[in-house]
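Task: sequence design from structure.
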């Protein structure tokens, strides 16, 4: 029997744990050897601390990232956090300094080995440290818990996150191409890293499809990541399809971005399949299992890669996809305003946000994605659910 692959933790979770550890040492004025934090999923995660040091107004420590069985370039990095207590200062809503319960401020910055964003289209605007929004909230929450516990008020706390060898490791990533210069990014939406070993993942896809078939599901929802899966689950729970997609022999009508409407049958959890980047393999597996009308749930960048015909969406060069999209948009006589946005964009996300997820443009890419799905697996009639960057399906 094959050993189950271990999950790991994101750099964001490690940064939050290190920050909490440093905050506890600053408050306790004693060495702290381990901490637990609450992940965005609601689960608790436990971390061992290393390199602890503290003084009356500063403390630091690091967490060694364990990516589980995921072959990630960041596996084994030391994610450091240094927290410094400063005198209070007036609230500055114009610069967005987080206000923590108890009247204290938390300011998060990057240090050695953390990249800075230089191009638009990412989750963080140009000029900011490449510490994504969810990790920032995790750090704020973890440190805020300590400040509340010890009733620390009227102070400002500077937190610097660093990765000593981050700049060198970043050379093995696409960070520079995306406009993240000088180091790695602090990432993660759930705090958990799922293994992406290709064979293990495709075996899991096959097993999940077997289970869906055995449970009587008549369609499956294929997601490229956990955020898209959660968005699809919420959407289809609140807008269940009108016809019984779940069980029985009735053929379901196509899903639209407007939802099923009316009264329908919510899909069971067995119908949701995490395909990751393995688009062609999963569609072909759906065909073999008799799921001829799968639903693909993903964000715009992945949808564009699927539309461009990539069998695997992990390694494709995004700038090539944007050039293809520009050609499609020109042929469809998209407005000059949107053509300019596409031609100057750095990422697909930038296009989606800048165009306000324009319905016609999204449908253009969606239709191409459906055709590409049929090329990967002849006979497949896929539908799409476009997921936004706020955890919802785009209406």
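Answer:
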């Amino acid at each position: 029997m094959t050993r189950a692959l271990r999950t790991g933790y994101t750099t964001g979770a490690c940064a939050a744990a290190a920050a909490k550890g440093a905050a506890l040492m600053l408050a306790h004025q004693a060495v702290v050897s381990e901490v637990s934090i609450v992940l965005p999923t609601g689960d608790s995660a436990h971390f061992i601390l290393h390199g602890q040091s503290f003084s009356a107004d500063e403390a630091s420590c690091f967490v060694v990232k364990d990516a589980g069985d995921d072959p990630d370039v960041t596996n084994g990095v030391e994610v450091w956090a240094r927290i410094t207590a400063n005198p209070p200062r007036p609230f500055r809503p114009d610069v967005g300094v987080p206000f923590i319960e108890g009247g204290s401020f938390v300011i998060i910055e990057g240090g050695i080995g953390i990249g800075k964003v230089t191009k638009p289209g990412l989750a963080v605007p140009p000029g900011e440290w490449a510490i994504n929004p969810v990790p920032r909230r995790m750090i704020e929450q973890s440190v805020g818990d300590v400040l509340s516990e010890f009733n620390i008020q009227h102070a400002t706390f500077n937190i610097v996150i660093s990765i000593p060898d981050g700049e060198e490791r970043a050379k093995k990533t696409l960070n520079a191409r995306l406009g993240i210069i000088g180091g790695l990014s602090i990432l993660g939406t759930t705090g958990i890293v799922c293994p992406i070993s290709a064979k293990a993942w495709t075996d899991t896809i096959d097993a999940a499809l077997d289970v869906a078939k055995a449970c009587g599901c008549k369609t499956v929802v294929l997601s490229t990541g956990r955020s898209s899966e959660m968005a699809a689950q919420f959407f289809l729970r609140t807008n269940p399809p009108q016809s019984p997609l779940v069980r029985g022999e009735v053929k379901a009508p196509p899903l639209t971005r407007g939802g099923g409407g009316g009264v329908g049958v919510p899909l069971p959890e067995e119908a949701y399949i995490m395909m990751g980047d393995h688009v062609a393999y999963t569609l072909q597996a759906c065909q073999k299992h008799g799921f001829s009308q799968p639903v693909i749930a993903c964000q715009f960048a992945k949808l564009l890669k699927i539309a461009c015909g990539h069998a695997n969406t992990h390694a494709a060069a995004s700038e090539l996809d944007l050039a293809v999209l520009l050609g499609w948009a020109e042929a469809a006589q998209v407005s000059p305003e949107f053509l300019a946005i596409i031609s100057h964009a750095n990422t697909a996300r930038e296009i989606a946000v800048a165009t306000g997820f324009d319905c016609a443009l999204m449908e253009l890419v969606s239709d191409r994605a459906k055709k590409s799905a049929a090329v990967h697996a002849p006979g497949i009639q896929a539908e799409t659910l476009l997921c936004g960057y706020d955890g919802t399906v785009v209406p």
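DSSP finds twelve helices and 16 strands in the chain.
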